[in-house]
Amino acid sequence: MIKYFMRRTIYKEFDKESQDMLLQLNSKQHIIEILCFMFWAVAFIFPYIPVFIIDVCEDIELSMTTQIAIIAFMLICMAGLLVSMKVFKRAMFGFSQLLAERIYFLVCTTKGKAICKNELKIINQANEKLYAFIATQMCRGYCYSICFEICKALKKGCIEFLAIKKFSPHDDEEDDGKDFTMHVLYVNNGWAFDTYSSRQYPIEKLHEIYKAKIYKSFSFDEISSKSYEEFREEQEPELAKWSIDNDCSMFWKGDKEET
Predict the structure, then answer these.
(1) CB 109: neighbour CB atoms within 10 A?
(2) Quick one: which H or E segment has residue 31?
(3) What does 238-259 look like in DSSP terms, one character per residue?
(4) CA–CA distances in Å: residue 60 to residues 66, 107, 188, 203, 221
(5) Virtual CA dihedral for 151, 155, 157, 159, nearest 10 degrees?
């Protein structure tokens, strides 16, 4: 039911194939965000609970004073919520967003074998900015550099370059006509961390979701002595040629990324 709703709203501009991909990658994040924003809807319903109890429990006789007190309580709560919504609207929704980010990180991002919780601690100690990007789902659009830095921080695993099926909206004015776009994963223990969804999947599962064409993997030993800029300059020409041959967009040069 929820996924049907998402197809008709959030992803209505995409074709069915793209919707199927996006739902597998992002549905949990959207569900968590919706539930966190619904907290305020529950808060608005709360003042009506005493009135509901009075209506249901008809056998309970309440004095006029008690009934007036209940109604006054309801009105005060409603007034307080309305004022809070007007004055602290940005803060309230900001809190909901922060809560959703934290829940998603703990429930989804940390689950998997590519990056375990202890390894996330190592990343935090080695590179706080990198950890913050992962913990707040801000790594989308930076797959090349994020995966490179994860591999360097953990000193193991590899980064995998692959062409993934595009899921651009029908009316995307920046569409270059190619069916695939280049993406990068951090791979370890047969699992992959995906910057687009900020989640971990068995590598075969992610290949299936993305309908991927694999280009090449680079182990930690192959990148350990290089900076990100050196690695990019070294690999970009060959990757650009492969992308042209495989109907794939590639936004690495100049660090313009779209994945």
Answers:
(1) 22
(2) helix 16-45
(3) HHHHHHHHTTEE---GGG----
(4) 12, 44, 64, 61, 75
(5) 30
pLDDT at 87: 59
* Locus of tokens 């961390």: 193
Q: At what angle do helices 228-245 and 143-154 cross, to 10 degrees?
A: 130
The answer to whether 214 touches 160, Cβ cutoff 8 Å, is: yes
Taking only the tens place, the pLDDT of each residue in 13-46 is 898 899 999 999 999 999 998 888 877 666 666 6
Give the pair of three-digit tokens for residue 140: 């989308």
pTM: 0.81
pLDDT given at position 184: 97
Between CA 103 and CA 82 the distance in angstroms is 27
> Mean pLDDT over all residues of the chain?
85
Q: Which of 157, 189, 178 is nearest to 242 (CA)?
A: 178
